[in-house]
Amino acid sequence: MATIIARPEPCAGSKEQVNLITMAHGRIMLVLLLFVAVVLGMAGRMVWMGVAAGSRVERSVGTIPVPHRGDIVDRNGVPLARDIPGYAISVRKDRVIGDRRELARSLHRIFPDQSEEHFYKLLTTGKANWAYLRTRALPRDVAAVNALGEPGIEFPREPERLYPQRALAAHLVGFTDRDGHGVLGAERAFDEQLLADQSRGTPLQLAMDVRVQAALEDELTRGVAAQGAKGAAAVVLDANNGEVIAMVSLPTFNPNHLEPLALPDPLPPELQGADGKLDPNKIPCEMSPRCNRVVQALYELGSAFKPLSIAAAMDAGVVTNLAKTYDATQPLVVAGRRLRDDHALGRWLNVPEALVHSSNIVTARIADEMGPVPLQNAYRSLEFHQRMTFELRERANTLWPREWSRIVNMTVSYGHGIAVTPLHLAAAYGALVNGGMWHPTTILKRKPGEQIASRRVFTEATSARMRQLLRMIVLSGTGRSAEAPGYRVGGKTGSAEKPSAGGYARRSIVATFAAAFPMDSPRYVVIVMMDEPQRFARTAAYTSAPVVSQFITRVAPLLGVFPEANRDIDTSALMPLLHEGR
Question: What element of type H or E holds 426?
Fold first, then answer.
């Protein structure tokens, strides 16, 4: 039997089945390819939208780039200004889809310090298509605005300038504008340096001590409130190197939240700079709390000038015998002017008595005997004829007499007819007590061994004598209320009437006390000035001098000066010259 092996013949439907399987496979692959293409397209779209959104944000806020700045710290490294990542809130006006009036109303509810009209104006007017709605926005405020659901509002992250000490030393530290450039104080004076240092590795270190600054601000604020003064200024200076340890101007401001200035519109020419924009140096202190009265405001500082004039007379060889007496029995009439003493004793006075009792007449007689040249030279050496040598840009020029006549020479000797800043007076008193060397003032902490462009303005012998006389004024004269037991304070009162139309306003007083301590080895100068105290007793003896006493008692130990009850400068040779009962 034979076995036949044969391949079975395919049936008619098998070929059709294979084609169907192939077709189904192809369709599945096509769907998969289409799905991948859609996914890739969507991913590409999302990437493109992200890039586009980023570019839109960059266009909307990047037109005003905010640069990073270096830190500012005090002499002990305490931060005063630094950049932090912050939020801003801006709007693209062409993308706003909601009702703009309602949106402005909602923004006002979130930021009640700005009016509804303010936000509506930002949303509807202006040439630019974008506008800042808020800078330095808190995260909770950003969340509240974001919840409004308005696509035209964006939240760019940008560096913000933070002032951790808030209003403390605001005039000294200053602040920046929206462009990230310094406008006032150290921020303005060292703008380029701060912009160059973005690493925070080498902060700008000021000479200011926040502990001393806080105490001075506190005591001065109390004094202003107690006296109802219009304003005030104070400065603490290192007498031996010109460092500004503290500087206060009242009223003050918070650089973290600047209130707009109430300036006239349009801006008058006298407030404009060469570019037609507002010049901060030209804003009167009465119009702006940002005005630094220590360096921007000019005052006739009155009797605080007398020790300087007497020192000049000593160096000129005019005052050689302190026991010599001068006629102060009646007002001195010169060129139709009556020069009188506020508290006339009606007798002849020697130099210690003239300073202790603040005699205008005796000081004028000594200046007249000295002549104008020595006094002018002394005042010029103290920079009373020009702006201070100082880093801050906000420096007022002084009012220097156009003609130095006989009567002018006599009145400027006791601080009338010449106007300077409180910082001018501080630097002058530093030279008066430190051995006679005038040091340029600085807001920067000096480096060890740093060369200082100092100059001699008084002899060492004159400076030593003036330390005794200034101490006597506090022990026995008009400066009694400045005494801080154990700290050997010396100083001089100055109560001057403010100039007005046709003369002086008798009820508008500038009350100043210029002090130094400890007088046996002076280290610090303290100037406290009150502008128009309003209480009954408005002179410096009752207004500024007590502030000096309280301040020195409070901060001297922080500065390394400790009370010593049995130590003082020797005034025993001069005390017998004071004849109180005569």
Answer: helix 422-433
**From the candidates 60, 249, 303, 463, which is the catalytic residue?**
303
Beta-strand ranges (E) seen in 4-107 are 72-73, 79-92
- Which residues are within 8 A (CB) of 402 and not within 5 positions of it... i.e. 6 or more apart? none
The size of the chain, in residues, is 582
CB distance 230 to 532 below 8 Å: yes
Q: Which residues share a beta bridge with 178?
A: none
Cβ density class 405-444: b for 16+ within 10 Å, e for less: eebbbbbbbbbbbbbbbbbbbbbbbbbbbbbbbbbbbbbb
Q: Who contacts 243 (Cβ-Cβ below 8 Å, separation ≥6)?
A: 207, 237, 441, 442, 444, 445, 446
Rounded Cα gap, residues 60 and 131, in angstroms: 8
pLDDT tens-digit readout, 514-566: 999 999 999 999 999 999 999 878 899 999 999 999 999 999 999 999 999 99
- CA-to-CA separations, 581 to 217, 345, 349, 353, 577, in angstroms, rounded: 40, 10, 13, 12, 12
pLDDT per residue over 118-172, tens digit each?
A: 999 999 987 788 888 987 788 899 999 999 999 999 998 878 889 999 999 999 9
Annotated active-site residue 309? The verdict is no
CATH of domain 227-257+267-577: 3.40.710.10
Of the given ranges (42-51, 210-219, 332-341), which has the lowest mean pLDDT? 42-51
Pairwise CA distance, residues 498 & 321, whole Å:
34
Q: Are the CB atoms for 485 and 561 separated by under 8 Å? A: no
Domain boundaries, the chain: 227-257+267-577
